[in-house]
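A quick aside before the break. I want you to see a complete sequence-to-structure record at least once, exactly as it would be stored in a machine-readable document. Don't worry about memorizing anything.
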Amino acid sequence: MQRRRVLAGVGSGCVGLLAGCLGAGEGKYARRIAVNGTPNGSGGIDTAGDPPTSQGLRLLDHEFYRSGSGGVRGRAANRGDVDLDFIAAYARFFDRSGTDIGHASDSESNFEVGQTWKFDAQALETAPSKVAQYQLVLIDQRSSEVDPFAGTT
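That is the input. The structure line, written in tokens, reads:
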């Protein structure tokens, strides 16, 4: 009887640990920030309030620019307590009617604690003059692993 209790306890513990390991990160981000903006300058961060933060990842500022290929540039900081192997900025562009007209991204590896990253997600395949709104998502997972825009509006 004791042997069954021990086996049942060990089996339950292993299932719990395995479920926790498999579920972590599946469709979820450890760090994720999503913001919306417009090319006329309303995409910046309100300096009177706290910048958007997710577990130490902090979006310091962002803006849409029309010069050259156009795109979204800004700064993010790692104010957490762990180095990040990978960080990415994904931008999605919309026209006046709200139609998705393009995407852009920039990424950095080895984003250490205390470091500030200047990102530039260039709109290489989107005419900057047609962009009326954009959405910016910062995540610490590669885009091949998950959809960075899942659950955003």
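Two observations worth writing down. The chain has one helix and eight strands. The chain has a mean pLDDT of 76. We'll return to this after the break.
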